[in-house]
Amino acid sequence: MESLLARIAAVAGRRRWWFVAAWVLALVALGSFAGRAQDELSSGGFEVPGSESQRVIDFFEAQADDGSQPFTFVVDGRDPASAEARLRVVTTAVQRLEPRLHVTPEIARSADGTTVAAFGAAAVSQNEGLQLAERLKAEVQRTTGEERTFVLGASATYETMQRTITSDLARAETLTLPVVAVVLVGLFGALVAASLPLLLTLVSVVVTTGLVYFVAAETEVSVFATTMVSMIGIGVAVDYSMFVLARFREELAAGTPPDVAVVDALRTSGTAVVFSGLTVIVSLLSIWAVPVRAVQSMAGGAVLVVAVAVLAAATLLPALLHIAGRRVDRGRIGRRGRAVRQEPSAFWGRWVGRIMRRPLPWFLGGTALLVTLTVPALFMETKNTSLEQ
Description:
Elements: H1 2-14, H2 16-34, H3 37-40, H4 52-62, E1 69-76, H5 80-97, E2 101-103, E3 108-109, E4 115-122, H6 126-140, E5 148-152, H7 154-188, H8 191-218, H9 224-253, H10 258-285, H11 293-324, H12 346-357, H13 359-374
Antiparallel strand pairs: 1-4, 1-5, 2-4, 3-4
Helix pairs in contact: 1-2, 1-10, 1-11, 2-8, 2-11, 6-7, 7-8, 7-9, 8-9, 8-11, 9-10, 9-11, 10-11
């Protein structure tokens, strides 16, 4: 691996602009699809094949004038007459909007009659139920005013949860990049050096999101896949590029010529990045043993972005470092702009030496500790309590 990465770094030095052009082309080509990926993603994917709940769903779907996705329409009116009149308008509108939604003629009333409700079920899939809930809320739900209308039920609840989570995560991601930028500037003390991890993050996330679009066009992919792409992508792209960049700056500080420093950085830190990425990918692939499409989608999105981040760190980053050279320390802030050659830590040297002298006992002790920490997972109870709240 070291020799392979060293050769890639050397080729990146001779063909640096070809490497950059290839990534720019990928960014432009896939970036145009990245913005459309959300339209191809599934809102469902939580079915568990062969489970008791799935057998119940299949039973309801087989019944005439019935379905597995329940809906409740509640009207809170000024008086009993206006409430029932509004409810009739609502039930007529929703059945016109979705003929597969069957609403029962019975009406439930509160003690004073100002709050009324009708019940129904839709013979649609979970994904279609979430989409239907979104359309119904836009069509009939009115949560303000003297006469209010609410769309309730499992699909409506999940749709609200999903919309809230997606919105909150998008806001968190928007706030993350400025914070990461400040941390990088403080860490490297130079604007050029701090900008390289951010650039690799942008490329990794956009390119991967574009790839998700094509995967989702062929098979069901959950909307949470893109969330994993951005969350994991920001972390690993910054992390991996920092390893290589820090080693490159240390080599420059030691007087190594820039072209040689790139090769040394990729040969050493780049090897750690590749093996770290492969370890993460293998770990995430084990999640595919869970037969839930939403979970598999999240794992798939994370695997894709880690693979793209490793590839970018091994090809795009060395090309950029060849281009930047000693200018990587430009835009210095205070006295922290230039990297210094750090001496090996005496503590970690003694620690590693102690372990390597007797590796077997340390291996057995570490394994026993990890196994002990995983034992509670055997007694973990999982369930969805969102509808019980």
